[in-house]
Structure formats: C-alpha cells, structure tokens
Design goal:
Layout lengths: L2 H10 L11 H11 L3 H12 L7 H22 L10 H15 L5 E2 L2 E2 H17 L24
Antiparallel strand pairs: 1-2
Helix pairs in contact: 2-3, 3-4, 4-5, 5-6
Length: 155
C-alpha cells in the first residue's frame, strides 16, 4: 500500500469534526496532535500540504514543523540518555522557530485555529528549553498541550 493510501485510510478512521467544512486531513492533524501522536499529525497534514499551492501552503508547513518539534520533545522525554534521542532539544527549538515563522502571516486566527495562541505556546516551550541551556524538556505526557479548532461563530 502506498503512503498516500495508508494516510487516507488512517484519516478515514479518525472521524469527522462537526460543523467544520474543513479537509479531514487538516482536522485529523489536531486529532492526532491531541492524542500525542505527533508523527502521525505530521504525516496526515503533510499529505494535504504536498497537494496545496497558494495561500495555505506556508500555513500547513508551519503546523507540520510544529508537530515535528513535538516529535523531538516526545522522543527526548522517552529516552533522555539515548545517543540520538537525548540530543533532540536543539532541533525542537529550530522547528518551533521555523513553524512560528511560517504561521506569522496567519495571525491571529486562521482556518478555525487560534494561531496566536499556538505561537505563544511554541515560544514559551522554546524559551524554556533555551533558558535551561537545552537541558530541560518542558514536554510531559501527563500535561501535554492540546490544540483545538474553534467553532465558526455567526455574527
């Protein structure tokens, strides 16, 4: 089975987000993210990003980079003394920075997401890592952040 077929099958199993007429790969990203499946979140949205041109391209890229940063933090947390996984703090901060840079033009909100809030979270985590001289991982599965899409409001 090709990767794209595998991703489509995976996304179809995630379920639908009510009242949001958004691509299931996009909403699936947040489902995976909130279940601490950061690598899967990356893969699901990458499938959409590779097909996207125009105004959403950098937006999706930024979200993918942020999921990648969380992959690094999660792996470092799970195996802090591992020769490779123990050194994932710097790559995480670089991906946070790249992700925030790509999301900058979508502030404060875009596609039902509080982009500003997500960037504040990433900045806080990155600052904590840098302030600890890359020795303290602020991510923990017990209090891992969740990112939810906002329902569209009628005015």
């Amino acid at each position: 089975m090709k990767k794209s077929e595998r991703i489509s099958t995976f996304v179809s199993r995630l379920g639908k987000t009510p009242d949001l007429a958004l691509d299931p790969h996009y909403t699936g990203y947040f489902t995976c993210f909130n279940e601490q499946k950061y690598y899967e979140a990356h893969d699901v949205l990458e499938h959409l990003w590779l097909q996207t041109k125009g105004e959403n391209h950098l937006y999706f890229k930024g979200l993918i980079q942020i999921a990648g940063a969380f992959v690094h933090l999660q792996k470092q947390f799970q195996r802090p003394t591992h020769p490779k996984d123990g050194r994932r703090m710097r790559p995480a901060t670089r991906l946070f920075k790249l992700g925030m840079s790509n999301l900058e033009s979508y502030l404060p909100q875009y596609m039902h997401l509080d982009v500003e809030g997500l960037c504040k979270l990433c900045r806080r985590l990155s600052d904590e890592i840098i302030d600890s001289d890359y020795r303290v991982n602020p991510w923990n599965p017990a209090n891992a952040p969740k990112v939810f899409l906002m329902q569209k409001t009628t005015e």
